[in-house]
User: Fold these one by one.
Assistant:
Number 1:
Amino acid sequence: MNWPTGSSEMARRVREHDWAATSMGPIDRWPVPLKAMVDVMLAARQPVYIGWGDEVLSLYNDSYLPILGDKHPHALGLPFAAVWPEKDQRVMLAAVMAGESHLLVDQPFALTGRPGRPMSWFTFSWTPVRLEDGSIGGFISFATETTEEVLSRRSLEESEERLRLATEVTDLGIFDWNLASGDVEANDRFRALFQQPAEGTLRADRILEGIVHPDDLAQVRQLIADACDPAGPGRYAFEHRIRTPAGERWILTSAQVRFDTVDGERRAVRIVGNDLDITERKHAEDAVRESEHRLQTLVEGIPQLVWRAVDGGEWTWCSPQWSEYTGQTQADCVGHGWLEALHPDDREGALRFWSEAVRAGELEMDGRLRNASDGTYHWFQTRATPVRDRRGRIVEWLGTSTDIDDLRRLQQRQESLLAELQHRVRNILTVVRSVLNRTAERSIDVDDLLDHFRGRLDALARTQVVVAQSVAGTVDLENLIRDELLSVGVSDGPGSGVTLSGPDVELPVDAVASIGLAIHELTTNALKYGALKTPSATLDIRWFVNMDGRGSRVLNLTWTEKGVPVVPVPPREGFGRELIEHALPYRLGAVTDFAFRGGGVCCDIRVPLPAEGQVPDALMGRLL
Amino acid sequence: MSAPGASGGAPITGQRILIVEDEYFIAADLRRALDQAGATVVGPVGEVGAALRLVEMEALDMALLDVNLAGEASYSVAEALERRGVPVLFLTGYDAWSMPERYRAAPRMAKPFVADALVALAGDLVKRGHPS
C-alpha cells in the first residue's frame, strides 16, 4: 500500500499511521470521499484540518503544524475534542457535524518560531463532508492566516483613535472639502464653530459667505486660491474672523491642498485642514500689546532717563530721553558704551557699584552725565532694580537716571545758608554783648543803662527786620532814616523843623545795620541834647551819591542840627561817636566826621557803594 | 575785666598777636582783652587782603582768625600763617561740620566767647607753638 503518495511529512505520517487500531479502520478501507479530501489536504498550500468518523479523529497537513505547535505529532489520529478541548471549538464542531458550514474568523494563536510576532491570527472555514448515503462523515477546515490584516486594521484603528483623542484635546475643527462638488465633511467641533447643522454634508460656499467676516472674505478667498496653485506646496495657514450670534471670533485655519491628475492635468481636488478658535489668545495678545504700548509711553514720557542692562552693567537698551540728553545712539550706549557719557572721574566708581550690585540686589549711585546740547555735566542719581525669573535669578536690570543737579545745588545752598545763619546768630549775640558792655561802662545807673541798651537793641532789631524782608537785597535809605525817627516819635514835614532830602538810594544790606544804628545814635543824641529837644531848632538830613576819583559810587550823608543852645561836650567818647568814628570806617570803609559846631551836631558820613546791579546776597550780608 | 593769666594757661605777655575779625565791636573787644593780658596786638583787620599783608610784614607769635570775613572765607590767611609757623586760633560762629576737613580738628573758639577763656586758650597755643 502506497497511499497517500507524496514526500511531505504529513503524507508519510498518514501513510504510516496504524489506522486499523482506530475507529476509522484500515486505511485501504476508507471511503472514497475521505480519501479524496486527504489528497486535497496534503496537496493544499494553506493549513487544512480534517475531522472524521464517530470520534472525529484528526488529520492535518504540513502547513497546519505551526497552529498545532507542540500538540503535533500526537494530535494525528486523536479525537478532535482531545486536541481542541476549548468550548467554542466544541460548539463549532457540533454545528458542523450537524451539517452547517461555518467561518471562524481571526482566531489568535501564539505560534513559536516567529520572533517579534507574539500573536498570529487565522480564519477557519469549516465545511461538513457527507457520505454517499447523505450522512455526515466528518468535516474539512481550511485555514487562512489573517495576521497582516488584523495588525494593519488594529494599527489603523489605533491611529484613528489617537487622532480623535488628539483633535478632541486640541479643540480642532476638522474639515475635508471636496473642491469639485463644494461639499465639506467636518467633525462636530467644526460644525459648532461655524454654526453648521450637526448632521449631513456641508457646503463650502455657505460657510464662506455666511460665516466668515465680510471684511476678511476677499483675503481668505485669495489665500485659498493661491494655495490651490499646483506649482506651490498647497499648504496654507491664516487668521481670520467669523461672525457668530455670540459675537466676533478669531479663527486660525491650517490646511493642506490635495492635488490629483485629472484629464492629464494636475489639479487641486480636496482641501483637508483644521480650524482653531484663537479669540482668547488674540484678546490676550491685544491686551499685552496695549499694556506694552502704555508702558512704552510711560517710559518715554517720564523725565527720567530709562535703560535696561544685564549683570555687570552691560546695557541692552536706552530710552529716547537718554539719547536726547547724552547724544548717544542705541548703538553707542549698549554694552559699556554708556560710560562715555559719564564724567571720567565717575566711571571707575560706577563699575565698582555694578560689581557689587548683584550681591546687594540693587544699584544706587550718583554720577555726572554730560549734556550733549551744551557740554556741561549734571549730577544724576541712578537707581536700578533687578528683574528676576521664577527661580529668583536675575534676568536683567531696569534702571533710571534722574537729574538731581538742582536738588544737589539746593542742598549745598541750604547747607551754606544754615552755616551762614549760625554765623550770623552767633556774631550778633557777640555784638550785642559787646554793645551791652560798652553801654554799661558809660551808664550812670541801671535805668540809664536800660534806656540806652533797649534803644540800641531795638534799632538792631529793626534793621534785622528790614534786611530779612528785603527781597532785592537792598534797603531804601530814606525809609531807614524815617523809621528811626518814627521810633522816637519824630516825623518830618512842615512845621516839624525836620527835613529829609535826597535821591532814591538802595543801601546794600551789609551796610544797613551799621548805618541804621548810626542814625539811631544821632537821633537819640538829638532828642536828649540837640535839635529834637529844642523846639526852635532844626534838623536837616540830606544825602546824595557822588563818584569818587576812581569812578566808584559814594554815598554822602550829612546830618546838620541848627539852633541848639550850646551844651557841654560829653567828657568821654560816647558809644555813638565810637560807632560813627571807628566802627563805620572799620566795617564799611566809610569816611566820617562828627563835630559840635555852633548850633548843634554836624555829622558827615561817606560810604562807598557797590556798583549798581552788584548787590550781595541778602543772607550773606554783614551785621554792623 | 580779669588780670593776665587769671584763669590759668600760659601768660601771653609781650606776645605779638594778630587779630583778623570783620565785626568792629568784636575786634575791639578782642583787642581790649589781649591788651589787658599784656599782649601786643597786630591789627585788627577785617578783610583777607589786609590780613595777608600783615602776615607777610609783621613778626607774629599767634593769630586770632575769624573764619568768615565779609562773606569771604579766611582759609587763605590760615594757610599763609601755617607756612610761617604761626599758630592759629579760629574764631567762628560755624559748627565744625561746616569747616573744611583739614581744619576741623584745628583749635577753635566758638562765638560768643568769654575773654578769660580766650586768653587762656591763646596762652596754651603760644606755648605749644614755641617749644622751649
Note: The domain at 435-620 of chain A is CATH 3.30.565.10 (Heat Shock Protein 90).
Number 2:
Amino acid sequence: MFDPFEILGLPRSFFLDMKVLEKRYFEEQKKVHPDRFALEESAEKARALRSSTHLNQAYLLLKDPLQRAGYLLKAASIHPLSHDPETLTKVMDWNERLEEGDNVSQELAKEEDFLFNELEDAFKSNEYEKANIALYRITYVKKLLKDVYAKAKGRGAI
Amino acid sequence: MTFGEKMTKTILLQLVEPGQTPNPHTNPPGIVVGIDLGTTHSVLAAVLEGKPRVLEIEGEGPLVPSTLKASTTGLKVGETQGDILSSTKRLMGRGPEDPICSQFPHLVAGQGVRLKLADYGLTPVEVASHILSHLREKAEKFFELPVEAAVITVPAYFDEAARIATKQASALAGIKVLRLINEPTAAALAYGLEKGIGGVYAVYDFGGGTFDLSLLKLEGGVFQVLGTGGDLNLGGDDIDHALADFLKTKDIRRARFLKEKLTDHDSFDGVIREDLEAIVTPFITKTLRITDEVLRNAELTPRDVEGVVLVGGMTRMPMVRREVEAFFKKTPLSDIDPDQAVALGAALSAHGLQYGSDILLLDVTPLSLGLETMGGLVEKIIPRNTPLPALASQEFTTYQDGQGGMVIHVVQGEREFVQDCRSLARFELKGLPSLPAGAARVRVDFAVDAEGLLTVSAFEKTTGLFQHVEVHPTYGLDQKALSEMILESQKHGKEDILKRLQVEEGRKENVQPPSDR
C-alpha cells in the first residue's frame, strides 16, 4: 500500500515539522527526478518518472494536515464519518446567514482554528474517534470558507 | 568544465548517438544550447568556459527577431522590414476561432491556423521551426559542430497545446529537446538565485506576447515552483495595438517604435510619456491583479517574497518597474538584461541536464486538467499548481443501461463549464460490457511528466479493457502531417550534417551523424 511516510523516510505521526518534510522531499527528488536521467535509457527514465511521481504524491499528502490526518485514520482502520447531526445543524445555520448576506468569515475562521486544535489534541492523546469527528467538521468549515471567498470575489470585493 | 578550443576538438571525437550515452556525467557528447523562443525576439545561449553566454555571430545582434520573410532564395528569419510574419508565437496551439487571430492580417480563412506569406501557407509551428532552424545553424556556425540537443523555454502559463506545438516545431527543426523549461524558472537560474540565501522569489515576466508571474522557492539548489499565473493575451504587442488605436494609425511597427523610444525619452515625435502611461496603466493593473492572485493561492503576501526578478522587454518601461517596486516594496533585480536572462538560464539548464548538476527544477501544472462530465461540466482531475510529475485518477460510470462506449473529453482550464475551457483531446472508450447504468467502472488516469506533457489512459475495470492516448492538441499539425514533415527534414538534416562533418578535417572516421532526430 502507498505509504507516504515510508516514501519520505519519516516517522508515522500527525506531528510533522514542515521544514524537515521539505528537506526530505528535496533530498529525495534530487535522487529520483527524471531530469537526473535525461540521457539514460527509456526504462531508466520511466522508473524515474514513477518514483518522482510517487514522491510528489506523498509530499502533497503529508504537507496538508487534513490529508495527513485522513491517511493516519485510514491506516488505523477508522472509517470516515458519514453523518453528524451537530455539524449538519451548524452548517445549515451558517449557510442561511451566508444567504442573508451576513459576514460569517471571521466566525468560520475562528471555528476552523478551534477544530484544528481539537484535531491536534486528539492525535496527541491517540483518540482516533475524536480526531475523526474533528476532521469531518473542519472539512465542512473549509468548504464554507471557500464559498464565502468565492462569493466575495463574485461581488468584486476581492 | 571549460569549453575552450581544446575541449571542442575532444568533443568531436566523443560524439555519441542520442540515447546511447551510458552515463550522462562522464562523456560530454556534444554541443547543447539554450533557446529562448520569444514572441518578438529569440535568443541563443550556451555555456562557455563554465559561464552562460549569449551566442553572437558576426554581423548579427544577440537578439534574433522572431520573424519570417519570403525572398527569392526561400524563407528568411530575422528580417524586420517589408512583408513579414511576426509574433506568431502567440498563435502556438491556438485555433482559428481564437480572438487573438484578429491581430494577424496574414491569416488565411479556412483550414486551421495558416498564415500566408508570398506563395507560402505556413502554420505557426512551421514558422517556429524556421526560427529554431536558424538558431541551430547559428550555433553550428559558432561551434563548427552539430547541435546535439537544446533546452527550449516556454511561458510558464503556456497550455498543453502550446507546449506540444513547441515540441513539434523543435522536431521539425531537427532539434532534440532535452527539456522544455518555463521562462521564469530559466530567468531565476540565470540570476543564480540558488546561490543566495534562499527563500521565496517572484519572477515578473512581462514579454511581447504574454505575462506570467511565478513564485519560486529556492533552497539547496532546488528551484521549486510554488505557483504560477498569467495571461496569454497580455503583452507588449497588445500595448502596441492600444497605442496605435490611440494614435489613430494602423502602423503597429511605428507604435512599437514610439513605445520603445518613450522608455528613455519623456516625449518623442509629439507623443508624451504620460499618454503612453495612461494607455499602459490598465495593462499593469491587470498584471498586478494576477500577481496578487498567485500570492493568495500560495498563501503568501508580498512581504514573504525575498526578491523580485524582472524579465521580458516590457519591464524596461520605467512605469512597470515603479509599479512592481511599489507592489512588493522592494527594488526588483534587473542587472541581467531582461531580454537575455531567459536564454542564459536555458543554457545553464541544458548544460546541467547534459553534464549533471546539483540544481533541480521542480515545476507545477500551470492550469487545471480535467474531463467533461454530464451537462457540460468539468471535473478537475489535476488542479493547477500541482508539482510535476503528477498522476491522478478518477472513476466514472455509465449513465445508460447497456451503454457500450464512453467519450473521454480532456480539457484544460479553471472554469466550471467545458465551453469555457480549452479542449485538448477527445477519444472514445469502446466495447464496454453490457451492464445496467452505473455498474461499469471506468478509471481514467492523468499522468503529467516533468515537462508538463499529459498522457491520459482509460481503463474499464470489470473487463480490463484498456486505452492509452497521448494527448495531442486539437489544433496545429495533425500527427500524420507532422511525421511526414519530420521524415523529410530528417532526410535533409542528416545529409546536411554529414556534408558539414565531412568538411571537418581528418575526423571523418570517428564521427557518426546523430540519427535519432
Note: Chain B has three domains: 5-191+339-363+478-510, 199-328, 369-470.
